[in-house]
Specification:
Layout lengths: L2 H4 L5 E7 L4 H11 L7 E8 L2 E8 L2 H4 L3 H5 L5 E7 L14 E5 L2 E11 L2 H10 L11 H9 L5 H11 L2 E8 L4 E5 L8 E4 L5 E4 L3 H6 L2 E5 L4 E6 L2 E6 L8 E2 H7 L5 E2 L2 E2 H15 L6 E4 L5 H11 L7 E3 L12 H5 L6 E3 L1 H4 L3 E6 L6 H12 L4 E6 L21 H4 L2 H8 L3 E4 L2 H8 L10 E2 L1 H4 L10 H8 L5 H7 L5
Helix pairs in contact: 6-7, 10-11, 10-17
This protein binds iron/sulfur cluster.
């Protein structure tokens, strides 16, 4: 499902290129393929023989870069870019990346995907020592740490800074003569290197951007690695050996594009396998299988294939709804005006439906979809979810940081079934999810972060520890919430 329906949001997407005469345009198209990772702002900084120039703004990429002139201005052979969804810092222009820092001894640009768990402590210390911040995003902390390092070499300063920040981070940094990509010691967020036909190297949050540029995949950046790209190609360095692979499992379930590969696993195939395992774990007597567009379609096809039930398009999504500011009135809603999803009456009428969705966050969307299908004449709606119940907050870059917001943290499966109005409700098990993704590793939980489901956080929570303890005591009654929430579109 798209961000505007689910309210479960990815933080950001990174893209960079080194060694292409039209670097900013390549970066634009790379970011275009990553737009699903952030829609609140976008920016590109280009490097023209050591002179950095940038353009950034609020909104979708197409709103920030309105015509060719915005790109043509950003001349040079290298560039980094960013699409943003704000989880740290607010949505003001000050927080739109890449940040472009200007110093007496040279400029650099910086972009970040993730969330630092010790940001508050570091920022306080830095400010007490005279640092001035221009944004309230946690990204700027890295710049101050690099500038304050006493290491004689730039790479050494970056390594020192990376060993000081904690949490989830993928960074792209560009100086006058190189580009640096770095990943946190757990590799929460994906980051990969590709190569274009003319030999230029590209770095992207997701490999789908390589496909759209005709670039070939070179390698994933590993936890604890720093990759330095310059006119001589790229070199691999490490800033720590203390690493444990724990890729965010929600990248596979929901965030990443199905045509991306993460750690060698295709996202569509992993989702399809989740659907197949759901069918094995939860066989249901029904007539058709329907997936919630778009991110649940792969899992729905897997469920249909394994169960032998026909896969049908029982729900369609309006692809153009995200920039609509005019909302229907309550009266129009009551007349059935729905903007995002519609049931296909001729498909669902009189049918017993297995409805496949990727996750349930607050439950309000699931409740809406079930009632949509029932209003269109569905006889039964059995909901199967291709991930385990979301019970714990995320502190590594996703915008759910409180248990209050998660229906499964507050209610049993049977209670959730009642709240969303389904005839039955099943979730994929943790084991089912790990095996569906099937990373080749001996790391715990099959190399995945499963904290959303089991509260086993791969790192100490640092500044969030107190908040986490507090949120464990919070409770929300979603029976009451659902009564209060109007049937929004
Ligand atoms: S807590 Fe959840 S969303 Fe956050 S990194 Fe772990 S699996 Fe991903």
């Amino acid at each position: 499902m798209t961000y505007e329906v689910k309210s479960l949001n990815e933080e950001c997407g990174l893209f960079g290129v080194w060694g292409h005469t039209d670097a900013s345009r390549v970066t634009y198209f790379g970011l275009h393929a990553l737009q699903h990772r952030g829609q609140e702002g976008a920016g590109i900084v280009a490097n023209d023989s050591g002179k950095l120039n940038g353009h950034r703004g609020l909104g979708l990429l197409s709103e920030v870069f309105r015509d060719d002139r915005d790109i043509d201005r950003l001349t040079g052979n290298a560039a980094i870019g960013h699409v943003r969804y704000a989880t740290s810092g607010n949505g003001s222009i000050d927080n739109i990346q890449p940040f472009h820092f200007k110093f007496y001894d040279g400029d650099f640009a910086l972009a970040h995907n993730g969330n630092l768990t010790n940001n508050r402590t570091l920022r306080k210390e830095l400010e007490q020592n005279g640092a001035i911040f221009h944004s309230n995003s946690d990204t700027e902390v890295l710049m101050h740490l690099i500038r304050r390092s006493h290491h004689p070499e730039f790479c050494g300063k970056v390594k020192e800074a990376l060993n000081t920040v904690k949490g989830g981070f993928a960074y792209l940094l560009m100086t006058e003569d190189c580009m640096i990509a770095a990943l946190d010691p757990n590799g929460f967020r994906p980051l990969a290197i590709g190569q274009m036909q003319n030999g230029a190297y590209v770095v992207s949050s997701e490999t789908c951007a390589f496909e759209s540029l005709g670039a070939t995949f070179v390698r994933d950046i590993q936890p604890g690695e720093i990759i330095i790209l310059n006119d001589n190609g790229y070199t691999i360095h490490r800033y720590t050996e203390d690493t444990v692979l724990q890729i965010c499992s929600m990248e596979f379930v929901y965030f990443a594009r199905p045509d991306s590969n993460i750690a060698g696993v295709n996202v569509h195939k992993a989702r399809k396998e989740m659907g197949r395992r759901l069918a094995i774990e939860n066989p249901i007597e029904a007539d058709i299988v329907v997936g919630v567009p778009n991110s649940s379609l792969s899992a729905a096809s897997g469920y249909a294939e394994k169960s032998g039930l026909p896969y049908e398009m029982g729900i369609v999504k309006n692809q153009y709804v995200q920039r609509t500011f005019i909302q229907p009135t309550q009266e129009l809603r009551e007349q059935g005006v729905r903007m995002k999803l519609s049931a296909v009456r001729s498909v669902v009428e009189g049918k017993r439906i297995v409805l496949v969705d990727d996750s349930i966050v607050r439950g309000t969307t699931s409740r809406r979809i079930v009632s949509l299908l029932k209003e269109a004449g569905a006889k039964e709606v059995h909901v199967v979810i291709s991930s385990p119940p979301l019970k714990y907050p995320c502190f590594y870059g996703i915008d759910i940081q409180s248990r209050r917001e998660l229906i499964a943290a507050n209610h049993s499966v049977e209670e959730i079934r009642q709240i969303i109005g389904a005839d039955s409700l099943y979730f994929l098990t943790e084991e089912g999810l790990i095996n569906s993704i099937g990373l080749e590793t001996t790391a715990p939980y099959g190399g995945l972060c499963m904290a959303y489901f089991n509260g086993d956080y791969p790192t100490p929570l640092y500044d969030y520890e107190e908040h986490f303890q507090k949120t464990m005591e919070e409770h929300t009654d979603f029976f009451e919430v659902c009564k209060a929430v109007p049937q929004k579109n």
